[in-house]
Predict the structure.
Amino acid sequence: MSEPKAVIRNIAEVPWKEFPGHHGGALSKPLVDLEGLGAQQIDHRISSYAPMAYVARHKHKVQEQIYHVLSGEGLFEHGDVKQVVRAHDVVFIPPGVEHAFYNTGLENLVFLVITSPIYDE
């Protein structure tokens, strides 16, 4: 078995993807994940949602997520609550909380997504 090693990856190396449930230009780059780097416990992405793009309402069984907004603004829904989020806001989403995220602003909504564990089993 090989020795574990640190990896440096430039964001430009990773292509944009529109994952299932994401619509209208809701794009993400999987920067640290099982498939690309062999990460076993964490998934780290940068997302860029064009105006009007969104991720549909959903919830996770066991995964925890963090959305860390870098720029732009949007509307985060959880349960019956709708809240505006913008640069420097950090959203923690525990398992079982139904949520959606919409770019309701005039420019791209750019944010980091950190998820653990990798699989929602």
Notes: The two ends are 27 Å apart (CA to CA).
